[in-house]
Write a structure and sequence with these properties.
- By secondary structure, the chain is an all-alpha fold.
- The chain is elongated.
- It starts with a helix and ends with a helix.
- The mean pLDDT is 96.
- Helix content is 78%, strand content 0%.
- The longest helix is centred in the middle third of the chain and has 28 residues.
């Protein structure tokens, strides 16, 4: 593993503490200690789940990225687009459901879609990079 991938993996591992806090917060939501609409509960679950899954995918991707022949910008896209997607997608779920008694997404739903685009670019770049290596 290159030094760059190793450092990025270390930073990603440190973010797991925030996901743990999110899990604690989810227990408060399901116990009814945090007032939320059904829509907000669904988006909180989705945000938490996407964060956890995409952080794991980010770590797995870093194991593969140095096995590609990618260089320059494409190498950095393969390294960073998936962890950026984890931030944007989970953040998009949370931000777009914020507000008292919200029953539909607010104007921040675009953050979720930006994260989805980042995920697509990241996995496509990494996948093609591995196939042509």
């Amino acid at each position: 593993m290159t030094d760059a991938s190793r450092v990025i993996a270390g930073v990603i591992l440190l973010t797991i503490v925030t996901i743990q806090f999110g899990g604690y917060f989810m227990t408060k939501i399901v116990r009814g200690q945090v007032p939320m609409t059904g829509f907000q509960k669904s988006f909180a679950r989705a945000g938490h789940a996407h964060a956890g899954v995409l952080v794991i995918l980010s770590l797995v991707g870093l194991l593969y990225v140095d096995q590609t022949g990618l260089s320059g910008v494409w190498l950095w896209v393969a390294r960073l687009a998936i962890p950026i997607a984890a931030i944007l997608m989970s953040g998009g779920f949370f931000a777009s459901s914020a507000g008292k008694d919200r029953t539909e997404p607010n104007q921040f739903l675009w953050v979720l879609w930006l994260g989805a685009a980042s995920l697509a670019v990241g996995v496509l770049t990494l996948g093609v990079g591995l196939i042509v290596a």
